[in-house]
Amino acid sequence: MATSRSHLPRPPSALAIFDLDDTLLDGDCTHLWLEWIIECGWVEDGEALLNQMRDHDKQYHAGTLNMTDHLRFSLAPLVGRSRRSVREQVEAFVEASVRPRLMQEGVERLQQHGRDGHATLVISASMHHLVEPIAHAVGADGALATLPEFDAGDRFTGEPTGIQTYQRGKLDAFEAWLSSHDTGFAEGWETWGYSDSFNDLPLLEFVDHPHATQPDARLRETAEARGWPVLQWR
Questions:
Q1: Least buried of 73, 113, 128, 180, by fewest C-beta within 10 Å?
Q2: Is 21 considered catalytic here?
């Protein structure tokens, strides 16, 4: 777990937390990234890789995904590649494939929170090397996501490390962020949360103002039963 900035630029008055995939981004950044590296020639059997990703996506929406297995799967094409070479490709990927798919109403909501003096965080189940530059692109103050492991030569090992930001893990990562960063957090801070997925129920139940964005069926049912706002940014 890591953030895109060590310190927030100003003492915040509140906090807004945003999921990324299907909340700010129309699609899944891991799936889009796999398509990108297939085009780059980093994968021998691209169709098999995408078929497995589709299976993982079904498991994610069912709440049955083994996240460790999924993270290893998504990192496998990067094993042995340097942090720098991957970062260069990610930067190109964000500009070419991610920016055109950002949902502008969602990005505007995040940036309005910033203008209102609120800290803004993107917390995603996708990997940090993808999430952090996207969070920076939308103007968020920080990004929380599972970190990839690097060897002594600063090359990807294919293993995830630290807190896995999935289901309850998102809340665990957020609590760790509060304890390890100079956020200006004070008891009584108002908090907002935005997500499309029932997997993020622990985080949405934690915040003062939960919002369901393009919700899956289970989250929509929960949101309607509890009177949470349902937003459509797609």
A1: 180
A2: yes
Among candidate residues 186, 226, 221, the one with its CA nearest the CA of residue 205:
226
Mean pLDDT of the chain: 92
pLDDT digits 0-9 by tens, 12-23? 779 999 999 999
Yes or no: is domain 14-231 CATH 3.40.50.150?
Answer: no
Domain boundaries along the sequence of the chain: 14-231
What CA–CA distance (Å, rounded) separates 67 from 165?
Answer: 9
Q: Structure tokens of 6?
A: 């060590």
How far is residue 18's CA from residue 125's CA, in Å, rounded to a whole number? Answer: 12
Q: Which of 21, 22, 141, 216 is catalytic?
A: 21
Q: What is the mean pLDDT of residues 204-229?
A: 97
**Apex 128 CA angle, 125 and 133, nearest 5:** 115
Indicate which residue of 19, 196, 200, 216 is catalytic.
19
- The pLDDT of residue 188: 64
Question: Cβ neighbours of residue 145 under 8 Å, at least 6 residues apart?
Answer: 1, 2, 123, 124, 125, 126, 127, 128, 130, 131, 132, 165
Beta-carbon contacts of 66 under 8 Å, excluding residues fewer than 6 positions away, are 59
d(CA 152, CA 68): 22
Instruction: Tell me how far the alpha carbon of residue 217 is from its chain's centroid.
Output: 20
Burial class (CB in 10 A: 0-12, 13-18, 19+), 54: exposed
19 is catalytic: yes
15 contact partners, CB below 8 Å, separation of at least 6:
118, 119, 120, 121, 185, 189, 190, 191, 192
